[in-house]
Each structure stands twice: as structure tokens, then as C-alpha cells.
Request: fold
Amino acid sequence: MTNPTAADACGCSDYRVSRRALLRGAAAFTGAAVTTSLMGDVFTQTAFGNVAGGNVLVVVSLRGGADALSLVVPHGDQAYAAARPHIGIPTGTLLAKDSMFGLHPALAPLAPMWDAGTFGAVHAVGMPQPNRSHFAAMEEVEDADPGSAERRGWINRMVGLMGDPDPVRGMQLGDGVVPTALYGEQPTVALTNYSSLKLPGATGSWAAPTRQSLTSAWTGVDTGTRPRCPVGTRGHAAADEPVGTAATRKRRAVSLDRTGQGGR
Amino acid sequence: MPGDAIVDAVARAYLDSGTDIPTTLRALVNHPDFETAVDVKTRTPAEDCIATWRVLGMRPSMPTRPTDFANHCVYQTVVAGQRPFAWPHPDGPPDVGDAWSSVSRMLGSWSLHYRTAGRWQPDTGVTFRTPESWLPPLPATVAEVIDHVSGQFLCPPADSRLTSVVAGRIDLPASTQLRTFDDLRSWRLARLLAAVLDTPEHMSR
Reply:
């Protein structure tokens, strides 16, 4: 049959396969120093891949890329046809219609879930006083904490409720920069893609030496007691210019006022 | 976090000078706490990218293609988790170690170190040092090579811990005699350079 049944309309069986693959990947790191938490001078290690069973919530964010009035069409509102005489979705093509809303015909694969009551839509979510800023509205939705000045997204708060600081409880795929909804005090993961969830260069017989080396590099380190080099000398050996002493570096910094704007 | 003493001294200089910026900066860099503030903070991903490109002696040239280094390098900051001007909040990216010690950050930085040490991706629009130029005159022991590289990347000579970490990464005893560059085959030089960059020493500032 061409249309999925209501029971598997979400394609969840495929997702279970992906999830197993993810756990396989994560299991490769178990016990290794994949995650480290640097708190001041103290490094603590967190075992990785300690995930078993349970439910998975998948959040797909199309940040600004979806036109809600075409997805869930308010065909019953006369203002819709008036405002969109050319690009409006014709009432006759809509799915799962009631007197006000209907689904875009391209959502046909989701229609069985709609009919089964397992899929719904929340329309026109935004600010009580819209200021026409897409960014401000997105922040409200992703932060989901009206009136609070805390920078802590709703997914991060939800992860925190699980009482288990497993860093792969909350994971973003698609961008290495943590999004607002995931940002917060709970450890989470943000990756450009799933395949980057691995130790670089640790293929085949190199897996064990790489893992062991990184583990010993990051275990029991106190950065505060290492021998220090003069300010500004570290990592300069490869550069062309001579490094100079700490005193000359300092003079260089102070001479900013002779080259920068507002110099005297 | 800076101590109260330096914050007070800089604040005082700022106010006493009538908000004169050069005077304020001078107070900052002349304070004893300034010089002792080395290596006690975590490098942010963007700083790690720049430090890595720099210590590896990479020389970008004028880009002619989107994939040339000068254009593509921003992608490496994405992998590390800190694309410039991409932070979703108006408060800007955090400047504390906790925020940059996540799983994805560590994997991103380690990946960056290995890719650039191996002179892979991006390999156009940029000049790398030759692999041989990282080594002391051969023959030399693995420990001597590690010490030589550590001196160039980190400044202090390698201690026994670093030597053990890096020798383990390339799966050779530290006492192994290297007679020719070929003794570092199987990407051992890239692994060796990356191992030095993957340490807390390189990843702090």
C-alpha cells in the first residue's frame, strides 16, 4: 500500500533503526574520555553512551522555513482568500478539513495520524504583543519561559527533569552551535551530523591507542600547576616574527593607544 | 573569573581618568594579575581554531573558490560549536569554561586538530608547513620528537606525562629511534601533532 497506516504513519520503525545505530556509535566511546567537563581547573570525566530504552522526543525545527498559513490552511477565514488571491491553497484540495482549517495536500502521509488523533497543530504561536521581530518570537518559543530572564531553553529544562546528567540525553543534529531551545546548564550535544560523533582518527587498530591516549591526557589534570611560559610566548614558535619578552609584549599592548583611534 | 583586586584597579583607573580608554587598558595590562592569568581559562572553540591554524603555521592565500581555506575556515568554527555572529541570544556566546567543555565541543576540537594537522580539508587556498619541518634532525627518539613539537606548540618542553600521552597516541614506545621520516608512516605525524593539540595545555588560555 502506498499510504502508511496510522500505527506507523510517523515512520517510527525507521527511526528505531537509526536510534540503534546511534547507540552503537555511542557505545564505542563507553568508558572513554570522550566527554570532559572543565570546571575551573578541575576536569571531570563523564562516561558516554549510557542510554537504554525509553521514549524519544524528536523536535524538528524549520526555523523560519515554513509558512504556517500554507501548512494548516485557515480556509474558513474570509481574510485568507482575500489576502492570498494567487498563492492561497484552494479549499477543494485541503485534507482533513473542518469549517475553519484544512491540511495542505502534500501532508497526505500525515493524514492518517491526523484522523487517528495522534497528530495535531498549534497555530499562530508568538508573543502576546507581537513586535514583528521574527527573532524575538523565536526566542520566546524556544525559551518558553515568559517573564524569566534565565537563558535556558525548554528542551534543556526538560532534560534537567530527568535527573541524570547524561550528555546525550539532549542532542542536536544539523549545526554545531547550540540552539536556544537546547541551551542551558544541562550538558547536551550539538553536532553538524551524526557521523561526527566519533573520535577522529580512531579507526581500526587505532581505536585503542587513541582512546587510551586521550583518556590519560584528560584525567587528573590540574592546569594551574603546569610550568608556565612568559605571557604571549606560547604557540608562537611557528610564527615568523620573534616573540619577544613579556616586557616587550606588554609594551606592545600598551602602545595600542598610539595606533588605535582616540590615541593621544 | 578575574579577582576583585584587578577589577577594582581597572575600575578605579577608568573613573579616575575620566573614562580614558588607554589609561584603563594600561591599568589592566600592568596589574600583576594580568600576567598570572595565563592558562587558567578554557579556550573557546573560535580561539582554538585560530590558535590551531596559527601554531600549525598555516598561511592562507587570496581565495578564488568557496572551498578555499579563507572561505571554508568558518565551517571549522561551526564544527567546533562557535560560528562567528551565530549565537542565538542577544547576550552573545558565553566566555566560561563550562559552556565550552561539552561532548560536541571536545569532539569538534579534536576533529579540527586532526584534520588540520593532517593537512586535509581544506587543503586549497592555504600553505602548510612541510611535514618534515616539524621534526628535529633525525635520527631522534620519539621522546625527542615530542619534545621538539611541544616546544613549538606549547612553549614548555614536554614533561613525562605529555611524552607518554603522545607516544601512546602514535603507538610507539617513547624510546623508539626514528631514522627517517618514513618511520612515522600510517599518518603518525598527523596523530602526533594532533595529540599535542588535543591536550588541556593547548585547549586552555
In short: Chain A touches chain B through 68 residues (CB under 8 Å).
